[in-house]
Amino acid sequence: MRHPRSAAGDPAGSPADRGIPHAPRVPRLARIRRGAQICRIHRTHRTHRISRPAGAASRSLARIRPLPAPRAPLAAAGALALVLATTPGAPALTGAPLPATPSPAACALPVADGHEAHGGLNEAIPLPAAGGAPAYGGPDSGSAAPSGYAPTTGTVLALTLFIDFPGSEATLSTHERFAEFFPATTHYFADSSGGHLRYQPVPVHRWLRMSQPFEAYGIDRGTGWYPDDPQGYNRLMGEIVAALAGEVDFAAYDLVNVLATPEAGPPATEKVLSVTFPGRPLVPTPSGPLRNVSFIWSHQPGESPHRVLVHENGHAFGLPDLYWTGTGSALPLTGHWDVMEQDWGPSNDLLAWHKWKLGWLDLTEVACVRYAGVTEFVVGPTDGDAADGGGDDGVALVAVRTGEHSAVAIEVRAPGGLDQVVCRPGVLVSWVSSETPSGFGPVRVADATPDSDGCQDDPHPQVTAGLTDAPFVPGEVFRDDDAGVSVEVLAAEPDGEYRIRVSRW
C-alpha cells in the first residue's frame, strides 16, 4: 500500500532510479461578487515558523501576520477585479483592468529532465493538449493518459482477479473478498472526480490457485518486479496469465486488481505488502503486455478499508506516494489531506492539485498566478457542496507558479463528502514540486498552526494529528518570501467559500 517505486517497479530503488515525469486560452479575470463586502478581519499577532518542504530550495519563514487594511477593488465591466502591481518590473496599472491570470497551462509543472521514463510517479501536470486541457484527458481534450498509465476520465475497466496458494487456501468466497472493496471504490472515484471517472470493476469470480506456497515467491515489503526474476511478482503474474489463457483478453482492460486471499502473508497491521506496478509493460499476454497491476494483500483496518485499493489505483493513474520513505524520522508532509499519504482510518479526499492532474477539474476551475501583482479570488471546495464546486468564480484551485518545477497550490477543505474528519475548515496551502521523487515529499502542506497538537477532540491513531488544523482561516496569512508568494484569507462566506488575496512578487 505504501511503497516508493522505481522505474523497474522496485519499491527499494534509489532516488536516481525513481521516475519523476514533466492554443492559449483568453486570460480570465478573478472576479469578486458585485456588492460583496470585504470583511474587517481582527488582526492576529501570532508568528509561526513553517518548515521548508523536503527536497525544495531553502525557504524563508512563512508567518501568520497582521492583515493590512483592505484595498478598494477596481471596477471592471460588470465584475470587480483587483490586480495591483506591487514590485518593480510588474505590469503597470492602467485605466483598464489587467488580466488577473494567464491560462491554467502556464502553471502546469513539466516533467523534470531525466525522469520521463515509465514508472515516473510525479506531480507534473501533463502537457496541454489542443484547447489547453491537461493531456490526461479531462472533459475537453479526449486524450489518453501518458506513459502507459490508466486513463483517468470516462469509463475505466478494472479487471479484478482473486488468487490463493497451497497452504493458504481462501476461507471466504470471491464475492465476500470483492465486497471489501466494491462498490465503495467505484463510489469513491465517482465522488472525488465529480463524475469525470466511471470506475467499473470486472471480476472473474473464482480463486486462481498459484503453483507454490506463498512463502516460495519471496514476497515481502519492498519487493519489486523484474522481468528475469524466476520467482516474485514476475512468476505470480505469469501464472495468473497462464491460468486465464483463452478466457481473458487482458488488453481490453485499463488496469488489473489482484486480490489475494487474506490468509496469505502477514496481517497488514504488522507488515504492508500491497503494491502497484504502474506505467510500464510487465509480463506478456497473447494480446499485449500486462500494465498497471495492483496487488492487495491482507484485510485492511479502519472504517474505510477499500481506500487501500484507491491508493494503489492512484499509482496506476500516475499519482506518487506522498508519505515519507526516506531514511531517518518520517517528516510531516500532507497528513490526512490526501489518500496518497494516508489510506487507513477515516475517509479522506485527494488534494485539488491531484484532481487537476487527473483531469477532474474543468479549466474554469483552475486559476493560475504567474506574474507579479495582487489578485483576489473566491475559492470553494472541490466536493461540490458549495456553489457547484469551487467558489463564486467556479475556482477550486489557485496555482501560483514559483519556478520551473515548483508551485504553491491553494484550495479550500471543509468537512463533508469524502473528508470526514476535517475539524478546522479553511484554506489549505501546499508546496508542490515535480522534480522531488515519489516518497520524498513532492507535496508538502503548510501548517498554519505548527506548534499545535491538532484540532481533533479525540485524535484518531490513523490521522496525523499535527496537520489536522493546517488550513488558514480569516485573519491569517501564508507567506513564503523566497518563493515571492503570500496568501491572505480575507473572509469565510456562509456557503463555505473563502475570499483570499494572493500576492506575487
How would you describe this protein?
It is a single chain. The protein has helices at residues 138-141, 174-179, 184-192, 232-243, 307-316, 352-357, and strands at 74-76, 79-81, 83-84, 154-164, 197-209, 255-260, 275-277, 293-296, 366-369, 373-379, 397-403, 406-413, 426-433, 443-445, 477-480, 485-492, 498-504. The protein contains 6 helices and 17 strands. The strands form 4 sheets. Strands 3-10-17-16-15 form a 5-stranded antiparallel sheet, with no helix packed on it. Strands 5-4-6-8-7 form a 5-stranded mixed sheet. The protein has a 5-stranded mixed sheet with strand order 9-11-12-13-14. By secondary structure, it is mainly beta. A hairpin with a 5-residue loop joins strand 16 (485-492) and strand 17 (498-504). Mean pLDDT is 79; it is low at 1-99, 129-144 and 384-388. The two termini are 40 Å apart.
What's a concise summary of this model?
This protein has helices spanning 138-141, 174-179, 184-192, 232-243, 307-316, 352-357, and strands at residues 74-76, 79-81, 83-84, 154-164, 197-209, 255-260, 275-277, 293-296, 366-369, 373-379, 397-403, 406-413, 426-433, 443-445, 477-480, 485-492, 498-504. It is mainly β and 505 residues long.
Helix share of residues? under 10%
Mean pLDDT: 79
Distance, first to last CA:
40 Å
Portion in strands: 15-25%
Structural class: mainly beta
Order of helices and strands: EEEHEHHEHEEEHHEEEEEEEEE
Major β-sheet profile: 5 strands, antiparallel
Low-confidence stretches: 1-99, 129-144, 384-388
> Over all CA atoms, what is the radius of gyration?
23 Å
Strand ordering within the main sheet? 3-10-17-16-15
Number of strands: 17
> Globular, elongated, flat, extended or rod-shaped: what is the shape?
elongated
Q: Helix count?
A: 6
